[in-house]
Design a protein that fits this description.
Number of strands: 9
Radius of gyration: 14 Å
Order of helices and strands: EEEHHEEEEEEH
Largest sheet: 6 strands, antiparallel
Structural class: mainly beta
Oligomer: single chain
Length: about 130
């Protein structure tokens, strides 16, 4: 990460980890978390993350703000959602996602770990 770019600069007090090339910075805030995820160019959940988590799709609900980049989401029912920064995102569990274009995707999320959907009044899984 580059300290010259404020969006990518180290976050004081954040827990920093990396998983499957994704840079994660998490700050606990009361009962929730604020999380910055930097998904690298070419990232594809099914190829890069699935081997680490063992599920067919991402089972986490994402709610936040896409600050940079473009992401493409596909759900098991064939639904497709495209997001381009700057944009608020609500991505229900049960998706496969990938970064599109030539820049990383930077997502600022607000979550409650496994309780995000329930705490925010969202469906537990994507559906129509």
């Amino acid at each position: 990460m580059s300290a010259a770019d404020p969006l990518l600069a180290p976050i004081p007090g954040a827990e920093h980890t990396e998983l499957a090339g994704v840079q994660l910075d998490v700050v606990r805030t009361g009962e929730g978390r604020v999380k910055r995820s930097v998904y690298p160019v070419g990232f594809h959940w099914a190829r890069d993350m699935k081997p680490h988590v063992g599920t067919d799709g991402c089972m986490h609900t994402h709610v936040g703000f896409l600050a940079r980049g473009r992401i493409h989401m596909e759900f098991t029912d064939g639904c497709i959602r495209e997001y381009t920064a700057p944009q608020v995102v609500v991505i229900e569990a049960g998706h496969d996602g990938r970064v599109e274009g030539d820049e990383p995707a930077v997502l600022i999320e607000f979550d409650f770990e496994g309780d995000t959907a329930a705490r925010l009044g969202l469906p537990e899984k994507h559906g129509h």
